[in-house]
Amino acid sequence: MKEQVLTRKRRPGLSEKGVERVLTAIAFSSIAVLALITVFIFVGGIPAIAKTGLWSFVSGHRWAPSRQAFGIFPMIVGSLYVTVGALIIGVPLSLAGAVFLSEVAPPNVARVVKPAIELLAGIPSVIYGFIGLVILVPLIRDHLGGPGFSVLASSIVLGIMILPTVISISYDSLKAVPAYYRDGSTALGATKWQTIYMVLLPAARSGILAGVILGMGRAIGETMAVIMVAGNATQVPGSLLAPVRTLTSNIALEMGYAAGLHRQALFGTGVILFVIIMILSILASLTTPAKGRARRGAAR
Amino acid sequence: MSKGLLIQMLFSDRIRWAGRAAAASAIVALAITLLIAGAGCRRTPRVGASITAAGSTSVQPFAEFLAESYMAGGGAPPINVQGGGSSAGIQAAIEGAAQIGMSSRDLKPDEKAVLKEYIIAHDAIAIIVNPQNPVEALTKAQVRAVFSGTVTNWKQFGGPDRAITVISREEGSGTRSSFDEGVLKEVALTPSALVQDSNGSVRETVAGDRNAIGYLSLGLVDSRVKAVSLDGVQPTLQTARSKQYPLVRPFLFLTKGDPPEGVRRFLDYVLGSEGQTILLKEGLVPANPAIGG
What we know:
The complex is a heterodimer. Chain A contains 14 helices and two strands. Chain A has helices at residues 2-10, 16-52, 54-59, 73-104, 107-122, 125-143, 151-161, 163-175, 179-187, 192-203, 205-221, 224-230, 247-254, 261-299; strands at 63-64, 69-70. Chain A has a two-stranded antiparallel sheet. In chain A, helix 4 (73-104) packs parallel to helix 7 (151-161), helix 4 (73-104) packs across helix 11 and helix 9 packs antiparallel against helix 10 (192-203). Chain A is globular and about 70 Å long. Mean pLDDT of chain A is 88; it is low at 290-300. Chain B is α/β, with parallel strands linked by helices. Chain B has ten helices and eleven strands. In chain B, strand 6, helix 6 (174-184) and strand 7 form a beta-alpha-beta unit. Chain B is elongated and about 60 Å long. Residues 1-7 and 39-47 of chain B have low confidence and may be disordered.
């Protein structure tokens, strides 16, 4: 028997060492791809940023490439507005959904509803954008005023788009809370709602936070749907009903037509987006372990 | 069979699976790397196999009609028509990525130096408003005031007391550059203008918003929007042809140097009576004065 195993092990390409090496190489190649992308974006974007000056590039209010004005401040603000708006709309819905699915809903209902919510993630973003364009934009225009293409429309569309991400991760982390937390809480005489509010949500906080951060990443990176409902005006939006342009839509809108310094400025926009997303992920990874410690403390 | 052997076999199966997965991912990773490396250098299509025309999204639908009827008439090699925008089309023609570049704006001097241009037709840019809007006529100065943001209410043009929603195209668009040159000139577009990325979405937005004003290829104006007269001239094929209408731009086909035989034949077809008649039927002003005169 041992011999058999040994002969199997000796077959070329199957040895422990070889597999290890191949896996390591592949793992590193994905990091290499990331590095390549970073280098590409920076090499493409730095000349324009250097020419405009980092500060005036980031804080400039005027974007008119044909007139040599490259200021992306309105787009940075726009991206942050719609992302925050999406979180304000999406996170309460997601938390309620996750709590309902994991704690309240009868198993039969959860079995139907959960896949349905996950299905939301499979719908292409252009469909969300189209529905927003056809239904949401005229609705806002007719009932709330303004052109309809607005921060509000983008926030609603993005808020719905991040639901599946935030719900599934929050649901999983709620499910991962050990049963004895619930039992202990019940034994102390807490009601179901008190258990959810005071025990389960704090215990699952790190997971929920990770879900929210992933949702935020999706919201800030979404392009197609936002282009269709945001209006894409190059100004800092003065109200919820004003049109807005995000960093991603700035790139996508003008990439096809851009040449020379204009093209480099779009890469520069990408650099800024990259930096913002990096800051967000670093913040996220700084927050999550701390919460994890708090949770372990609570478990003791 | 002993338990130990089973475990060993399972284990070795897992190793084999891992090996296969590793091989597969290695191929995928290699492909990705090649793709990234390849993105840098644009592929030149084989000459003779097919002809690629790329560029202006305004010219694109007309070029598609032309290519279709040319190929239906037994014209070979096949013609591929792609969009991408005027600047991209000009760039593609210069780099040789497309044998024919399509542009809906005039060339800049440095572009003119390397490219041969063929005017296939002229197109008027219509200023459009919602059909519910009572405003029928604007002057160039008024349109400039609206698009630069100095006039923001329809009341000032005898319309209802409502804020104007300005719809423009994105930077670099051929329609946008022609509009900039023809109307805005040295003044800049108001930053509060909505930006839509195609003729179609401009039309869609103006059709849905009674306060909106936009600009659009005359050939694409339909009953859902209303074209206003500019400086007292209604945009039509006749006024565009006679150059009475003040906002007319050329539709260009571009080649780098003298075109090869296949491209030459297609250009002859487009500039000949058959191609020009098609363009006239589709709502453009033919470049050939003998057609539809």
